[in-house]
Amino acid sequence: MTFRVRTITAAEHVAFNATLPSVSFLQTPAWAQVKSEWRSESLGWFDDADELVGAGLVLHRRLPKINKTLAYLPEGPTIDWASHDLAHWLEPMTRHLKQGGAFAVRIGAPAVARRWSNATVKAAIADASISKLSDVTPDEINLATTRAHTQLRHLGWRPPTSDEGFAAGQPRWVFQLPLQDKDEDQLLKGMNQLWRRNIKKAAKSGVEVSQGNIDDLPDFHRIYRETAERDHFTPRPLEYFETMFRALLAEDPDRIRLYLAHHEGDLVAATTWVRVGQHAWYSYGASTTAKREVRGSNAVQWQMIKDARAAGATVYDLRGITDTVDADDPHVGLIQFKAGTGGEAVEYLGEWDLPLNRLLYKAFDLYMSRRG
Questions:
Q1: Residues with Cβ < 8 Å from 354, sequence gap 6 or more?
Q2: What tens digit of pLDDT does each residue of 51-97 get?
Q3: Which UniProt keywords apply (predicted)?
Q4: Same domain, 80 and 211
Q5: How far apart are CA 221 and CA 122, in angstroms?
Q6: What total number of domains does the chain contain?
Q7: CATH number of residue 9's parent domain
Q8: pLDDT at 191 exceeding the cut of 60
Q9: Most buried in the list 21, 85, 136, 221, measured by CB within 10 Å?
Q10: 300-313: per-residue pLDDT in tens?
Q11: Taking a C-beta distance cutoff of 8 angstroms, is the pair 44, 347 a contact?
């Protein structure tokens, strides 16, 4: 079968996404409005019967002073990644993007490569001789994704290296809590003792979790800035979150939610929740240094998990982790916190680059590395 790739409308893209169990929220046309500094384009894959069988949101970042772009498909495109012939899917896309002025293409293949169960993750953290989860035998290996990895290499794609200036993209390692065929009691029993105790303590302390709206974003942002200062990261501006809420809610009135945890009138934790079909994500979180003992963060996570299940999600995604299980690594606390939910570690095929003009590709990398 020969596929043809051409630009499609946002409405066509939304309609195609709606036919699938789920796609990444980064592959929805609404996400292009959030990333307004990038020029956007929705692509469609059409088969011999002219049926739309694949789609992808492309974000174009222009090289300064030159009318050439990096074409980026975050956690996309949405195609058959189990195909025995990925060239039939990817080559029409790269031809289209090259004709449109792309000097390189970056994809974020949304195919699961390996999984580690909660028991395996906890055992790895407890074993002083193990420093990386990738050194631990996984509980599940997806052979179709292994085949996709080999095909990408053969077709000239390569994973971006960690020292590249624009290498920071979407996480390859994430932590997910499966929800399918589990009731609330089963989910709670699957959590570790500390999580169950903290959820119970929050309830006993009188923590109340509610859903907010766009008018409550300034309150969220206030404690988000406090979290950024405490955890040493650069916060996004309030306007970014306002744009995100307006864009995603315009596409689907239940695409994104704001959760607020209060204790005796004080906001102690706040989070954002995103859902596309059967996949729900915890995207941003914030908490105050004061009143940490009332465990607002655990309470708000538990509410989001329950609501994800009630909305029909089969996966609650806590997003990125690192590969480390080394007790001396400062990042190990992240996987320990998320492992407490009873979920599993997941490795995706991840991001891959195809340089179409190697000179410009290197120049763009240098430009991005100098920016910061």
A1: 94, 104, 105, 106, 107, 155, 156, 157, 158
A2: 999 999 999 998 878 889 999 999 999 999 999 999 999 999 999 99
A3: Acyltransferase, Cell shape, Cell wall biogenesis/degradation, Peptidoglycan synthesis, Transferase
A4: no
A5: 33
A6: 2
A7: 3.40.630.30
A8: yes
A9: 221
A10: 999 999 999 999 99
A11: no
